[in-house]
Amino acid sequence: MLKKLFLLTLLGLNLSLTPVFAAETDDQYWEIRRIWFAQAMNALAQKDWFQFQQKTLLLQDYPLYSYLRYQDLRGRFILRPDAEIQRYQEQYTNVPFAKLLQRQWLKFLSKEQDWPAFIRDYVPQNNTKMHCQYIAQRWALGQDNADMRKQARALWTVGKSQPAACDPVFDYLIAQGEMTDSLIWARLKLAFENSKFKLAAYLIKKLESPALKQQAATWQQLHHAPALTLSNFSAQDSPIIREMLTHSFLRLAKKQLTDVPALWSDFKQRYAFSQEQKSKIQRTIALQSAWQEAPQALAAFKALPTAQWDKTVQQVFLQTALKQKDWKSLLQMISKLPAKLRHNPRWSYWQARALQATGKWMQAEPLWQKLAKQREFYGFLAADKLGLPYAMNKQAIALTPKIEQALYQKHPGVLRAREFYYHGMLTEARREWNLLNKYLAKTDLETTAALARQWCWFDQAIFTAAKAGAYDDLDVRFPLNHFALVMAAAEEQSLVMPWIYGIIRQESAFNSKVVSHAGAMGLMQLMPATGKHVAKRLGLILEQSKTIFEPYTNIRLGAGYLRMMLNRFSGNYLLATAAYNAGPGNVNRWLKARPCEAQDIWVELIPFKETRRYVQSVMLYMGIYEQRLMNTHKYQAGLSQDQIVHPLKVAAQEHQVMNTRLCRLAKQKKKAEALTRADYSGTHIPTTLQ
User: Could you please report the per-residue DSSP string of 167-179?
Assistant: First the structure.
């Protein structure tokens, strides 16, 4: 408000139109030029071109002059300022609006069908339609070479339909005899893998070889009915046949896993699958066995070569071992992991946990002690196991006026980003920031992160610090913005501030304007329907959905929804946090499946990767915010005798997540199943995949 009043006051002054002020102070320089820039943008919005040009002339020494020139040029495309656009590109190579202007200019030339100018000014774009237009028009002018044909083949060989602008390119390949069955088959393979059946049918018609047409028809059968087709399959071995069979086995493992072991045992003897194909099939069998909770899942994982142990395989194996409480298998597999992977926090924690579960506490404790020194989810769990305080390992990024000025001189884009942010032009500010993040050195990235925090541009401060690897500046990464609003909402809903802050940090990184792909809005990412529901319970009236963006409303409604989730799940912060992300229905379903699980295991077994990471992050952030807030006098004064026991402490004590009745029923069922297995101990249950 003060900023607006100050600007309005200066706008009323009769300012000189002389562009140089020899005696002005640094503050006066910025104040006056910011006013002129605001006036220029207002004139642009009003299409007052004379006023816009007048102000632009006055701002030649202002960082955003290049942006005004961009706006001027894009508004004059119809007048064909070809030479000026070329000069702009040459002068502002490190300004993001140069590339934007170029893309818009090419679209204009395409629309005008000025193909000579389009070809003259074309540079590669991340735009398939434009790329095809460029190649087609060059060929139309008789300009052909091997590189262009290579580009055309690359445009063809994709597993999806391409824009109509690419048809002339593909027609030219056909006319030149380049559209071979081999090229068609390469695209057909991708179409099958992406389940693009209309495209596949179109491509099959283009095949000239009767044998390939027959093989393509067989591939269709293998895709749509893998079990039936494989059971009667007798084609001779060939590279194409092996590709088709690999695709079919991957499909079958997802649809009818029980049919896979016998069929795979037979086919891998009859056909010379490559090691890559074998590994791909075995990996899918292992993952599907785990997801479908087949008894042979762990054995399937053990059969996988180390090279197949990517992040997905690691996580699913861990979940499978935890579900089965097979601590010995878990320890065996951890011991076989590469040293770097074995020593990462997650595997270190679960190695210690498995050692504890098998009665080897003395071996587990050193692992937990080392882990407890890290500011990390599993590090906090380890600290609670040992009764130690959480390690903060805080180290601030160095930022002085001298460092700041040096950065501005070295990278003018930082100054442009600052000015865009000052004017509330967040899209333009992010364009500058994103370009900077691509080429700044680590030290400069750290400085820009600290600067963004200084400007109260919290989300970019957080993301930039992470990109720079500056994880230890907790003031930058965990701001205490909206302190009064968070405190008021916490008091109203009888919640603790660290939880609300942890949710905000995870949901929006303090960007109050952010909207998710699903439509969630603002700091605490509330869906409009949820916001209205909570508002009704709180006796608030939301006249329009955009009110949810306002920090006061968003935090109050978000805290209200957190209280609803906490009440619904009997005061369990882990479950309430999971419900805030995935919905209470999903959490209830997971609890029904595993009603009496230790909390650290329950979190690791959350089926949704996003929700699992979400819960772990919020719990970690709660611990950090507890420490940040303990240094705040107002927060200390508000603490009472019943202050929160951090959820991780509860998890470390291995408390269970659900009510006694469901847990008791689950244990009774498990006991009955054990008795049944004893009665039928002679029954053979396959435990390995050949």
Answer: HHHHHHHHHTT--
